[in-house]
């Protein structure tokens, strides 16, 4: 206490003042700022927890109620669509160009669904967050037409044999999932809207509207879906959705949004 007052008033001898490493007095450096220490009595703790609990009950009820209204129906088609005679060698069947892989399935959804109805596909055990795979893209190339030649990180899907750049380059775009779906009810086709399934931020600041696909899937080994070369990347919403990283191995992506009541 004595020490403190003396330094406060600057009354230490002039000699030691020069060499002293003592910090200048302030309430902050002396840790004298006003403080409040809660006194946790059982009554206080119980009252606080009860009050917070009561605040969260309506929030919880609201979330529970709205999630209860969501009707979700799931249909797994990889096994259903494989007839027993080809199931023995499924890989050969999938790789073959001559087999017809169209699969028609009647699917009864018990509950009533209200528009908008969203359709997703889900891949299990697909490691879209694999270290080399996740880097195999070039964001500059996706965004600017002038950056077309930038194919760093895209190896081995970066250039054609004639050294032309591939747009969009990289394994992610190359491996784009391309199963297609058609939905009908009572033999009437559902009108399907494929617009606005991607995030607006991706469309407006990651995928350029002057960048068009080029030399895509034109090499020897075709990975997945092809892209329409007269549609800019910002409108290729399937690609944008595919490009979003998934940190879980059960990749779930939007395919369609059905805004039309059937
Ligand atoms: C494949 O089969 C479906 C019906 O199962 C048929 O509608 C379609 O035309 C067939 N496609 C080809 C290329 O034969
Ligand atoms: C999807 O890609 C594979 C490989 O290129 C191709 O064999 C298949 O016909 C494509 N499917 C559709 C529906 O385009
Ligand atoms: C590609 O897109 C253009 C413009 O939207 C369209 O007219 C054309 O039919 C599309 N081509 C294919 C093969 O889908
Ligand atoms: C995916 O992750 C990579 C690496 O973490 C990152 O560079 C890239 O921007 C991400 N892509 C998207 C669409 O979020």
> Radius of gyration over alpha carbons?
31 Å
In whole angstroms, the N-to-C terminal distance is: 83 Å
Low-confidence stretches: 1-12
| Average residue-wise pLDDT | 82
The shape, in one word, is: extended
In N-to-C order, the SSE pattern is: HHHHHEHHHEEHHE
- The neighbouring-strand order within the major sheet is 1-4
Task: Give the fraction of residues assigned to helices.
Answer: 25-40%
% residues in beta strands: 5-15%
Ligands in the structure?
Answer: 2-acetamido-2-deoxy-beta-D-glucopyranose
Number of strands: 4
Question: What is the makeup of the main sheet?
Answer: 2 strands, antiparallel
Count every helix, treating DSSP H or I runs of 4 or more residues as helices. Answer: 10
Category by helix and strand content: alpha+beta
Main location: membrane
Organism: Medicago truncatula (Barrel medic)
GO cellular component, one term: membrane
Keywords: Membrane, Transmembrane, Transmembrane helix
């Amino acid at each position: 206490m004595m020490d403190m007052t003396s330094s406060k008033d600057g009354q230490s001898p002039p000699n030691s003042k020069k060499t002293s490493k003592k910090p200048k007095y302030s309430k902050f450096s002396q840790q004298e700022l006003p403080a409040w220490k809660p006194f946790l009595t059982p009554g206080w703790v119980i009252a606080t927890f009860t009050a917070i609990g009561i605040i969260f009950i309506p929030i919880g009820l609201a979330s529970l109620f709205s999630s209860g209204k969501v009707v979700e129906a799931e249909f797994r088609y990889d096994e259903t669509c494989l007839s027993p005679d080809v199931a023995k060698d499924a890989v050969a069947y999938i790789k073959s160009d001559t087999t017809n892989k169209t699969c028609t399935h009647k699917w009864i959804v018990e509950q009533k669904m209200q528009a908008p109805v969203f359709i997703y596909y889900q891949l299990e055990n697909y490691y879209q967050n694999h270290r080399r795979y996740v880097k195999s893209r070039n964001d500059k190339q996706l965004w600017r037409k002038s950056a077309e030649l930038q194919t760093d990180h895209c190896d081995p899907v970066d250039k054609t044999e004639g050294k032309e750049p591939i747009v969009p380059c990289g394994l992610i775009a190359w491996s784009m999932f391309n199963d297609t779906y058609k939905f009908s009810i009572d033999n009437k086709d559902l009108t399907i809207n494929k617009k606005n399934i991607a995030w607006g931020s991706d469309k407006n600041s990651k995928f350029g509207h002057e960048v068009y696909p080029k030399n895509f899937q034109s090499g020897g080994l075709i990975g997945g879906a092809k892209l329409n070369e007269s549609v800019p990347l910002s409108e290729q919403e399937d690609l944008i959705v595919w490009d979003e990283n998934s940190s879980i191995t059960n990749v779930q992506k939007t395919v369609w949004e059905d805004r039309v009541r059937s």
